[in-house]
# Entry
Amino acid sequence: MTDEWINDYVGVPHLTNGRTREGWDCWGLIMAVFKEQRGVILPDWQVDTLPGNVVLPAVQAHQMTEFVARESERALEVPTAEPWAIAVVRRHSMAHHVAVVVGASLQVLHCSRATRGTACEPLARFLTTHPNTSFWRLREFDANP
# Structure
């Protein structure tokens, strides 16, 4: 598999709770990538919002942390980034962003308001702005890398 597929995702806008190419959030991107590129269906999770699609960061972090904990049996924490690892970014011990490590050169594909949509950047740059990141490999990839 070449890495050209990554370009199909770059530029899709950020949309809280979005789950299509019209716009997605960080988890919506992860769901799309794993389904389309690896044939893996991940469970959905959406943050509670206030009217006008307003997100309270503390609520989002709490809900995402609970979701990651529930799904942790499906994944194994790995000591360093590797292709297809899910990067979980924490702030004050709470999960607040996810991304996927892609390609042999270990790029990070992620979507946020800060990046103005979906972006792909070198792992080193991502870790500079997201230093509290852990990496998780889905257990089903142990048998089928």
